[in-house]
Amino acid sequence: MKNISSSQPLKGIKVIELSNMITCSLAAMTMASQGADVIKIEPPIGGDKMRPLGTQKNGVSGFFHNCNRGKRSLAIDLKSEAGVNAVKDLVSNADVLMHNYRPGVMEKLNLGSENLRALNPNLIFIAVSGFGTEGPMADLPAFDHVIQGFAGFTDLQSSDENSFDYIKTFICDKVTAYTVCQAATAALLARTNTKVGQHIDISMLHACLSFMWPDGMMHRTLKDQDKFEMSPGSDYFQTINYSDGGVAVAALTDEHYEVVLPMLGYPELVGTPLFASIASRMTNMKEVMKTHKEPRKDIGVEKAIEILTAADIPCSPCTRRDEIETVEQIKAIGALETYVTQAMGELTVTTPPILFEGKSTSHAEPSPLLGEHSKEILQELGWDSSKISKLIDSGEVSVSSI
């Protein structure tokens, strides 16, 4: 592989992405930020369903940009002979193909795992599904909201036993995306020893159950009758809300509560049976958290942070989303970068969170317009200009520019 470096460990890796929405898009973009060459294959009409969703400019939304920067776009009809041939030609020299079509769709297109890996035994083929490839729900459509409900997230998030609430971000899509990315890099490592690629199945349901289980199901993990029961992890979460904002705090030790309880206006509870030990608190966390939910003293965020910090209790102010870009600590770690692209103008995005060799890297790249690189990619495959022009004229391939 060419020009591999610590900060670009995937340089020379070629990734083919066939997807809609977040799971494979974010996974492939993460790989692009680490040096991979990613070609995103989209339908010639409309493209990825993320493109028009949310605040946008020149037909590209911030939502799409945040999952697709640094890629090239080939807009071609996969139901056409040209589309199938293009994928096969691309796969012949690719390292990873990932898709999130429903089970069986790729096979119907003659682009299934067995066919493509027969063309290129080194190919790592990753198929992402909603509910898995087996069982009564295998063929059903799945979006983040659906998996949140089915995997128990909406129950986990609710504070009322008789209702359910969403986590208000596409957490299931993003958890699956990072699972896909980790699987791809692990498979690339395995290939250095086995000398062949492999087929990988990942379902959103399975990935999200694995994500929730360590703390969200800690109370359901041990099955023996002699277990010592404590509160589930979901009972530990309660901000302290004051008239001027909120405070996130993680008090654990007896010494912590000797500070927190008086700060909240409950000095009489220090040392009482409920608060006297970690074991007592952790088996009755809902009761403990009532003091956080209903502070008797409204001392304000700044004073609360001062008290908690002086006692070395983990804490922070709750940051409004619209204020994130102004926070000094976020600036200090270089978590955001602002740059300009021709199509979308000035943008602010996150920098890659992995600091290889302890150094920050940038991913200040444009996201592609639909079909922006169609001609370029097909020419790289050796297709002649007249053939490409005919495909564009027929609508089987689309091109965009600004």
Could you explain how this protein is built, in words?
The chain is α/β, with parallel strands linked by helices and 402 residues long. The chain has two domains: 14-213 and 335-398, Crotonobetainyl-coa:carnitine coa-transferase, domain 1 (Rossmann fold); 240-317, 2-Layer Sandwich (formyl-coa transferase, domain 3). 37% of the residues lie in helices and 15% in strands. The chain has a seven-stranded mixed sheet with strand order 8-7-6-1-2-5-14, with helices on both faces. Strands 9-10-11 form a three-stranded antiparallel sheet, with helices on one face. Strands 3-4 form a two-stranded antiparallel sheet. Helix 1 (23-33) crosses helix 8 (171-194). The longest helix has 24 residues, at 171-194. The protein is elongated.
